[in-house]
């Protein structure tokens, strides 16, 4: 008998999913996070799960977890003391950045705080040209001088990024060797190993971020690994990457930047798996937790990927699931601003002290407090009865800080908080759909996270979406997603070439080289050759354009494959930008290979659907104020475990379970499918 365990660390709660490979039983558990030391909640939760289910630590065959350590280190600026070595004349590149501006006309907009302390960016005498030829040989004494200087300044990490090293890495390789000779204990991050692609600022920024996080992540994963061993678990744990896959501890230490948004990515993988089961190929994920809402788009069963995004104001050029995050969660704090307007978020009460209704000392009104006042949450206990809530504290917080400054009634204030936070989340959905050329009405909104099902139907109605899917355990879908993830390595090269017959062999040589590199990485992870697969992409653009579109291609890059790529590019350019031009030449810029290793995962079985399945009986009736309603409505309260495949109810209704609460507004119908998902559809007239 073997058990698989997935652990997702959130800002408010830490979630656990366990799967028995012999019986097929899947169980879930939640407990409060410990932000001061995330590993405490992880280890104590794992020990509780093992004890509660009678599992011996030796029976654990797989353990994966999503971590917020890298994210928090960047947010709180608690990374390592860092030094930079770059080409002479370019040491200020991190300060200069690029011409992109988040607020073009805001002259007072602050730049992100520098990660490199003053005086810690050094230069090496060397120069490689745009074609990879050496103009100025590496002056090794200048490198040794820089390394000794950084050592004297007690740098804990060194980032190395020289011009055009993605074409010719010889200088960077020698610089790394010199660092090892002069300062062997320092953490080193070298750009050609991490991002062998063009665009100097993005490459340097990614390398600096990686070095900044390296020592912090190294300490954390070693402590976590030791804690797991002390608990009796012998398997080596995996950590989630931002691209939705998992990697070993050793790989995490080498490339910590790959975990920068690892937690939310696991939920998208879980959503894609459930969507595939249900035959739904167009999904917008709606992952609302205690601190934020994470939104992503899945089409044809695949999550949208971005190869570059801003992480705390700095570009990180690594493949990540394209997730838009907004500070709108259950713990988001509501306030009246100086102009008298009601605002919600992005500040959060987090796990400690949490919303006022948690009774942990929080006094500021939060989204959870508003939902409690409106009757959408259980008035006594949540988390399956394990956590008591205090409605009087929620009312007190809203009355004192929202009602009095605004002259709103308690019901108006609570409804206003929900309306504002729903509007914030609607804008996030528009970013991943409408603003990228997709019609959101063609998609199903998949609601998960502890608070996702509370808001999903009302947000869907605002977007014109008529179909919402709520998984069986929505509050722990991210930890379940960890059990669905494979291991994957994304390898890339930059070479600018025209898409024509003359360059077919050159492209094939690049793909062959990247495939070999991917195979070596999978070898290190112990992946059997029969469990491997490779996908190939080329990022293309029209000649003289400056931005690329990724197109999936065949690994055997024949003339036919190139013709298909060109046609796909025209279509995708038309969808993204509203036009295409067959007369223009197409440039191939970046070449990517995803090397995937299939890992054993749960196989969730369908159950028979009873045609005459009776609707479950409500356990109580509660007065609830829904969005767009002017008064409280008597609403049936159900237990999620009472729903069986084929069960159907009409809204208004509230469905409670251990890890979440689902709100079914008037005009919506909830049906339970063969996988015990709730298929919620709008049938009450025009949206």
Task: Describe what is shown at a glance.
By secondary structure, the protein is an alpha+beta fold. The strands form 10 sheets. Strands 13, 14, 15, 20, 25, 26, 33, 36 and 37 form a 9-stranded mixed β-sheet that branches. A 6-stranded mixed β-sheet has the order 3-2-1-4-11-12, sandwiched between helices. Strands 6-5-9-10 form a 4-stranded parallel β-sheet, with helices on both faces. β36 and β37 (678-682) form a beta hairpin.
Q: What is the overall shape?
A: globular
Number of helices: 16
Q: End-to-end span in angstroms?
A: 50 Å
Q: State the low-pLDDT regions, or none.
A: none
Overall pLDDT confidence: 91
The assigned structural class equals alpha+beta
Strand content: 25-35%
Q: Provide the helix percentage.
A: 25-40%
Let me know the largest β-sheet. 9 strands, mixed
Radius of gyration: 26 Å
Extended strand count: 37
Describe the SSE topology.
Blueprint lengths: L2 E7 L3 E8 L5 E7 L5 H15 L7 E7 L2 H7 L6 E6 L5 H4 L24 E4 L2 E2 L5 E3 L3 H13 L4 E5 L8 H13 L4 E4 H4 L5 H31 L7 E3 L5 E3 H6 L7 H17 L3 E7 L4 E7 L2 E2 L1 E2 L2 E3 L2 E3 L3 E2 L1 E4 L5 E5 L5 E7 L18 H7 L7 E2 L4 E2 L2 H16 L3 H23 L11 E5 L3 H12 L3 E4 L6 H8 L2 E12 L5 H21 L7 E11 L6 E5 L5 H19 L8 E12 L22 E5 L8 E7 L8 E3 L2 E4 L4 E4 L3 E5 L5 E5 L5
């Amino acid at each position: 008998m073997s058990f698989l365990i997935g652990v997702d660390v959130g800002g408010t709660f830490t979630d656990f999913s366990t799967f028995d490979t012999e019986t097929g039983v899947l169980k879930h558990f939640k407990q409060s996070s410990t932000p001061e030391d995330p590993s405490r909640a992880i280890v104590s939760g794992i020990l509780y799960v093992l004890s509660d289910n009678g599992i011996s630590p030796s029976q654990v065959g797989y353990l994966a977890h999503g971590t917020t350590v890298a994210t928090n280190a960047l947010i709180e600026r608690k990374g390592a003391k860092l030094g930079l070595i770059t080409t002479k004349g370019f040491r200020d590149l991190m300060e200069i950045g690029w011409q992109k501006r988040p607020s073009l006309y805001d002259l007072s907009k602050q730049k992100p705080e520098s990660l490199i302390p003053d005086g810690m960016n050094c230069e090496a005498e060397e120069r490689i040209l745009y074609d990879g030829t050496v103009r100025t040989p590496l002056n090794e004494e200048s490198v040794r001088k820089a390394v000794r200087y950084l050592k004297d300044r007690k740098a804990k990490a060194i980032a190395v990024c020289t011009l055009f090293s993605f074409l010719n890495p010889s200088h960077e390789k020698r610089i790394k060797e010199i660092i090892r000779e002069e300062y062997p204990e320092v953490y080193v991050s070298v750009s050609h190993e991490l991002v062998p692609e063009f665009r100097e600022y993005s490459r340097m920024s990614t390398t600096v971020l990686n070095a900044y996080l390296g020592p912090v992540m190294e300490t954390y994963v070693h402590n976590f690994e030791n804690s797991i061993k002390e608990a009796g678990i012998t398997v080596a744990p995996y950590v989630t990457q931002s691209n939705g896959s998992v990697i070993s501890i050793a790989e995490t230490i080498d490339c910590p930047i790959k975990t920068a948004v690892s937690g939310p990515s696991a939920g998208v993988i879980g959503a894609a798996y459930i969507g595939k089961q249900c035959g739904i190929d167009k999904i917008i994920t709606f992952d609302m937790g205690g601190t934020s809402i994470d939104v992503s788009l899945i089409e044809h069963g695949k999550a949208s990927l971005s190869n570059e995004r801003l992480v705390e104001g700095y570009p990180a050029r690594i493949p990540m699931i394209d997730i838009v995050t907004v500070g709108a969660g259950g713990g988001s704090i509501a306030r009246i601003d100086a102009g008298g307007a009601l605002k919600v978020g992005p500040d959060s009460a987090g796990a400690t002290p949490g919303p006022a209704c948690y009774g942990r000392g929080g006094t500021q009104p939060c989204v959870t407090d508003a939902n409690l006042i409106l009757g959408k949450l259980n008035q006594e206990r949540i988390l399956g009865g394990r956590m008591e809530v205090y409605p009087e504290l929620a009312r007190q917080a809203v009355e004192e800080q929202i009602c009095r400054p605004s002259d709103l009634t308690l019901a108006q204030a609570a409804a206003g908080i929900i309306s504002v936070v729903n509007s914030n989340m609607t804008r996030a959905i528009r970013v991943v759909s409408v603003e990228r050329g997709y019609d959101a009405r063609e998609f199903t909104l998949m609601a998960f996270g502890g608070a996702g099902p509370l808001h999903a139907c009302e947000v869907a109605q605002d977007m014109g979406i008529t179909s919402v899917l709520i998984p069986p355990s929505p509050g722990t879908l991210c930890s379940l997603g960890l059990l669905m993830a494979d291991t994957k390595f994304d390898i890339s090269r930059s070479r600018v070439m025209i898409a024509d017959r003359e360059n077919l062999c050159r492209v094939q040589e690049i793909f062959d080289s990247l495939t070999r590199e991917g195979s070596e990485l999978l070898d290190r992870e112990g992946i059997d050759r029969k469990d491997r697969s490779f996908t190939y992409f080329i990022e293309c653009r029209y000649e003289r354009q400056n931005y690329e579109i990724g197109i999936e291609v065949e690994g055997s890059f024949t003339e036919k494959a190139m013709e298909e790529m060109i046609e796909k590019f025209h279509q995708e350019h038309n969808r993204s930008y509203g036009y295409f031009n067959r007369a223009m030449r197409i440039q191939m810029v970046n070449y990517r290979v995803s090397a995937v290793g299939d890992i054993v995962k749960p196989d969730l079985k369908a159950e028979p659907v009873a045609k005459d399945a009776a609707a479950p009986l409500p356990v109580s009736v509660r007065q609830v104020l829904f969005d767009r309603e002017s008064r409280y409505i008597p609403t049936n309260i159900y237990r999620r475990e009472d729903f069986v495949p084929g069960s159907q109810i009409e809204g208004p209704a509230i469905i409670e379970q251990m890890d979440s609460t689902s709100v079914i507004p008037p005009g919506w119908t909830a049906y339970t499918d063969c996988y015990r998902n709730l298929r919620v559809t709008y049938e009450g007239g025009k949206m």
